[in-house]
């Protein structure tokens, strides 16, 4: 037996020796990347997974004139810890493509590829090409074996995505996403059984394009320097990068013919000498304990590759410019004062005077901001005008039950009327928080407005009587009957911060109890299930960024009220989800477009996707700079500090503070624009929420620190900052009744 063991050991060592003679191996952590010395095999392997090249046994894949061209490396060499691989692929028309791939160990369990494709010889009849780099798992799998992370698009599974959304249909085989719609150019998939996740990140991406690059028909142009990242899900699972970027089977690029529900938007480079076809990627594995761990890990990996910069803005100037807009556009029509639903840009003409109390209308909160400015500067006209807005809502919108009518139309020739528009938790919650702010700022200046607080109490009473046994609230209610008109409960978070604020001011425990019941529901069905759904109520009831923001606010408020660590954990998870909608690398405007609404010399870093199902972006994360700074103080995770600074500054870049965009007022800003199709073109209107997004976090910073600039606050001793934020947490910045 002893000799048999020796023989087996000898044979194994010989086998390993022979294998070593046949391949080069790069090691990174527990993961090995091996390439056969004859160039005919590429393998990525760790203990739990084995991947080969995309179209194994081939190691290089191009697509020329819509036909696949596969090949092997003709040369593989070791050079200074890297593997330098060269392939020459010849098409049927005689074009010779020279492919140079350099592989290098990167961060732990990851590798880097730097690829350059040149054309040594062009063959007549070859018009266009793409190159692919990908890896395929070497065993059979199904799509439901994995949880996916594609920022702003795909979170865990395809639940709560509308029909036609990217990644919504699991009968698809191809999931290719243009990187210019991704907040960071990365994709990742986690195998549920093992927790092992594979990811791919495009490094140094500069996704250039040109005006007119639209539609599903193939476009061939060397000015396109964006790629696509994604997956194929057939008998097995592949992760890949395509350059330039093809999108499909589902795409938002143009319209497919009516008879075709799905298809691809093809983009290719011309077959010609001197073409620029260069890119770098990292790829590898992370062992993750759950899906939230995957999101944090991979997002931070990509973040650290791009290190997004803060573009400093004068916060005080942004504040004053915003107050000027509020003062200018406030109009009292027949006893119904408020701000126009929208303002056209750049001419600054008001579109229509109709008033939504919260959400996109933000009437009551904007009144609070102007009221506070008036009280702090002894501007009696501001105080008078803002108080009229608050009184209009208190005296006219609430029914005897406590429910409110959230949307009014004002007229020049008659009294205001109320729309049939339902009482959404998102709309009413925002309105009530504005009312609490207005009551509080008056209280701080020695003016008691019990009727304003009673308005909040009456609505909270209706909430308590309406709350479901499981602690939830429905998305919306008919204000005439008080009955729900939608079965979704995912916006239960939207009302929690208001209830905590009311409890802080009144010390009436019934409000805390209702908030805790709503919190338990939200923890179980939103936090636990990773389903942040429905916050963008003018979009379909889908996964979105704003639901994440609402969850942060709710769970932080519950943590403040109870000190229970579970709420802090939930707030952190919601914040990590939410930030993945924020662009953390620059997508340049189209090179030949002189009419973009977004400044061509300004980075889009800090602007955020609004929801899944489309690629519109806005400055809506501006609301959350205070909460991200709070999370930094709670966790000491400097990533949250970086986020807070970017949010506080970069989101203001779409204001016209320097006058370059020639808006009528410097404080105006466009509601949303597109980073992909018709880049930088916007709706050319401002809504009241845009002003609120600038002003709301400033007031929370002032309530907590007496200062709104994070750079100034950061100069203070940590102990002082901690004491100040703990005092804020105890009171929510509110006076007692």
UniProtKB/TrEMBL annotation:
Transmembrane ranges, per UniProt, are none
Chain segments annotated as coiled-coil in the UniProt record: none
Q: Which residues form the signal peptide?
A: 1-19
Keywords noted in UniProt: Signal
Is Signal set as a keyword in this record? Answer: yes
GO BP terms, alphabetized: carbohydrate metabolic process
Name the domain of life: Bacteria
Q: What is this protein called?
A: Glycosyl hydrolase family 76
